[in-house]
Design a protein that fits this description.
The chain has 169 residues and is α+β, with helices and mostly antiparallel strands. The chain contains two helices and eight strands.
């Protein structure tokens, strides 16, 4: 039996926690660098040298924060784009509000992770199909007659399949 799939909600939650952790780490690093620059060092005795050093550090920190902010915005935008495209390409609600796919991209199903509940073309044979249920895949379910093959568009066994093109059916 397959493992229960990780939900999209859980993945988004993990990504959000990682971004929060990275943000806190960046703030702590900036505070440490800023605090270190406030302390006079032996190599910089003049006030002008300290001001120049602080100005350069401030530019570096500003640039780093800007890059971090841009990175977070790109990550959020790509997550939004992924979810929009995923939902538009036949997604619906599986369980717990997780988007799922109703159709296959490769013509057959090898695993049911993020697939909606239902029957799909098997990747092993045209003379059978698999059933996805709550993210789990069933064993191969053969067609009732050896003369028919699974048609994934019609979702039933037929004399000729418009979706399965395996030679050795």
């Amino acid at each position: 039996m397959s493992k229960k799939p990780c939900s999209m909600k859980k993945i988004c939650k993990y990504i959000l926690w990682i971004l929060i952790f990275l943000g806190i780490s960046a703030v702590v690093a900036m505070l440490l660098v800023n605090n270190q620059n406030r302390q006079p060092t032996q190599s910089t005795n003049s006030m002008e040298a300290q001001i120049d050093g602080n100005t350069e550090i401030n530019r570096t920190l500003t640039s780093t924060l800007q890059n971090f902010d841009d990175s977070i915005k790109k990550t959020i935008k790509s997550m939004e784009t992924f979810l929009e495209g995923y939902t538009k390409s036949g997604g619906s609600e599986l369980y717990s509000g997780v988007p799922c796919r109703k159709n296959t991209t490769s013509g057959c199903v090898q695993e049911c992770h993020l697939m909606c509940d239902g029957d799909y073309q098997s990747c092993k044979t045209c003379k059978g199909y698999v059933t996805c249920n709550s993210g789990y895949i069933s064993a191969l379910r053969p067609c009732q007659s050896s003369r028919v093959v699974w048609d994934d568009n019609l979702k039933r066994c037929e004399g000729v399949s418009s979706t399965c093109e395996q030679e050795d059916t």
